[in-house]
Amino acid sequence: MIRKLEEEEEEQEGYPKYLTGTCNQLEKIWLFVAVTYLFQGVTYSEELERMKRAVDPEAFMSINELITYQGYPSEEYEVMTEDGYAITINRIPYGTQNQGSPASRPVVFLQHGLFGDASNWVINLPHNSLGFLLADAGFDVWMGNSRGNRWSRKHQKYSIDQDEFWAFSFDEMAKYDLPAAINFILEKTGQEKLYYIGYSQGTTIAFIAFSTMPELAQKIKLYFALAPVAAIKYAKGPATKLLYLPGKILRNRIDVYIAQTSAGTSVQNIVHWSQEARSGKFQAYDWGSSKKNMEKYQQTIPPLYNVEEMMVPTAVWTGGRDLLADPKDATILLSKIKKLIYHKKIPEWAHLDFIWGLDAPLHVYNEIIDLMQKFLPVNQSAGGDEPVTVAEDRRKAAKAGSEIIRYHGYPSEEYEVTTEDGYILAVYRIPAGRNDRNTGQRPAVFLQHAFLGDATHWISNLPNNSLGFVLADAGFDVWLGNSRGNTWSLKHKTLKPCQKEFWQFSFDEMGKYDIPAELNFIMNKTGQKNVYYIGHSEGSTAGFIAFCTYPELAKQVKVFFALGPVTACPHATSPLVKITNLPKPLLKSRVDMYVGHSPAGTSVQDIFHWQQLAHTDQFQAYDYGSKENMKKYNQTAPPVYKIEEIKIPTAVWSGGQDTFADPEDMARLLPRITNLIYHENFPAWGHLDFIWGLDATEKMYLKIIELLKKYF
């Protein structure tokens, strides 16, 4: 094939113009090809048998064998593409400890990088391989093999000895391989959507497919892009330097890595990457002449791929030392992803750390699983009406709020409250203290949890460290809310969680519908005319919205206690992950309790609303775009919430290390609170110290009780 490339270079006609360029330019291409064949030579040399005796046996196993060798179930399928290639797909239907029907498991599809194959995901030991980790976490794992790699070298018409077989690049992988694989998997599992994880070139083909085929994009719940590559204007030495080994690598696995890589590709694919590096553009393959491009694309130059048109929720991980997915290129790419829900840069990582690094589970894999589980309640159309999902497993494993309350010896009541727009919310009540026999009327206090939380946030610690229990023992009638869409509020009068319409809400609706419904229910139930309101994080956000929108409701709130309040948040950093930095004084034995109940779920729209607030620097309603805004709000821009109009006595607590309710944002919020009666900042506190910190009772809860009694 190298010889053929030389011949075509001499012809010039119909081949990329840069092949007639300088020696330095050509050397880069030769180096690219040489690296490929060097690796294949290691795998297929004449001394293969001698090597087998000297290295790890996994170095010479098929993907199916690699999976079963580690004790996991394995299935293998051949999928036919529209243009006749037979590509192999490997499946791990369940983990070693969670056997069961694969039909009940969320589906994840993993696509390898340049020169790779499905073994990229199972090549490390099980606790360090993403494929195995996902299977053990309860997912149905599928792994693709791009055309031309060692496991996908069949075609309906051509053999691998024919030039026509190798006439492809990542263009065709995106246009044919990816749709064929995804549609096959969904048909086989009976699901409507799946999660997609791509690495390197696996992200490239996804950006192409999901931006050019909207129907395919709608079948993706979440897109996880590891070391994403589109335009590579700043990439350095893509042929060899990308192969630098991770700093943290299992040395006795190197022979397995080398033998399983490279799995092969076409010269045309390599040339396409070289075109990308030279042009700095993310575009289709350049056939080298206006005539040929016109035949292929109906235009004289290759069409550009518009990542901006991709509407799939996307999470991205990048490396600071990645010489293929260069940080500068990554910055440009990130700005084009319209639905970017998360990005993390790992400064010391290079390109191969994402699949071979020993610290990959810590830095990336565990976060992927966490994000998948957070989004499971959102996208439950993936299993029809089938409720057996990771989210449901969590619900069954976790105790309901009423059970936790009774477990600690407190009286417990549970109610369902229906909102004006039809959502049915679970509300828990602790009507008295643990040892209190007084059944008389007590002042009612309503507590509203944070983003991705539920009512258990207030009772997760032991009684002397849980605000819900502390208030009950102090003589208050304690009510705990659950926002729509969380684990305990998944009912609606006419909609089901498997319907898209169920999830069309953000904290706008929580403030406009949930809070009024809950407060009015409590006042009707207790016969009281006023309540106290305590909100943490998004619970305070919903409070601000409710009380500035409904002045009559605000008059019924005695005092508003805002813990880590969030409104406009331009200085917040990574709200999906960094807010969960655990408090320093933490009851270690309760960590399983915290994790068992968090996150409790929310909607994608709620997450996007938070992202909007981070970018607009305004505390405003959800932005649907000017046309839809006009329908919703009778104006092209979303209305701004006027906190200044709230007259409720308000007490605020903030944290100096809070990365969601950032101190800079807090400094701008406080002057807007017209009736601020108290504020205290704890320099060492993060966002979760308000509910889980061991020093929360001493530093904050006792002060809350003091203020409650003062304003009784």
From TrEMBL:
Belongs to the AB hydrolase superfamily. Lipase family. One of its GO terms (molecular function) is hydrolase activity. InterPro entries: AB_hydrolase_fold, AB_hydrolase_lipase. Keywords: Glycoprotein, Hydrolase, Lipid degradation, Lipid metabolism, Signal. Pfam families: Abhydro_lipase (PF04083). GO terms for biological process: lipid catabolic process. This is Partial AB-hydrolase lipase domain-containing protein.
